[in-house]
Amino acid sequence: MEENLKWLWAAFSVAWALHLVYVYTLGSREKTLRDQVRDLKAQLEERDDSPLA
Amino acid sequence: MNREPAYSDALPVWLIAATGVAVLISMYLIFVWVPMESTMGVVQRIFYLHVGSAFVAFLGFIIGGVASIRYLATRRNRFDDLSVAANEVGLVFALVCLSMGSLWAKPIWGVYWAWDARLTTMLLLALIYVAYLILRESVVEATQRAVVCAVVSIFGMVDIPIVYMANQWWRTQHPAPVLSGEGSIDPSMRFVLYFTFFAMALVFWCLVRLRRRLEGLKREAEALRRAVHAV
Known about the structure:
heterodimer; A: mainly alpha; 91% helix; B: mainly alpha
């Protein structure tokens, strides 16, 4: 039985690790997109404020 | 006709709390409460999260497929967003199911993998959604991307009954269905399985909401990029 405990531990570790890695990728993708949106908004505002606008 | 969807920034506190509590209860039920299975011993406890993850993966792919059908019928972006979110999160659960099954098979069968009908069809189902995500990144034009991906998503959904029925249609090494009929599991085990499915469904819904928000941000970035490049 103790021999099989390592498989149980491994299976649950892999399951939760996959979830955590996925949540981490969601967070990093969201950060990248928020940065892009902020930069693009700044570019638009800059263009609207320029004397040529 | 394309309306821009707006998604709330934060997950509701009640959803996070309910998910956390349900996951903790399900872990307690799996590791402490449910009786030990007599043949396989402790390693059988993998079954609850393995099967629960498979059910949630199917749920995700069905939601993704139905949302794709609705997208094709209405061309509303919110259905495309829901489809990609449900399919991507469904794929995560399918990978959890496959990896846990593999780690159960090693001590029980002596091998990590067998080219058995159930395992192979489940792997093919996961690969359909890997292809779906690759396609999603490859097609540049938004409407074309949504239409092509909706078709693949519907195709993937149609594969689910084949995976589910595989161990009844073909002779397989995979255990036979244990939820009903002859040789079904103990009611306490069935309760733990259903509760784990419920807890995983809540995790699924949290992840879908986070992933859908990402799609809203992508759309906003694309619109801003168009505005910046338009002179």
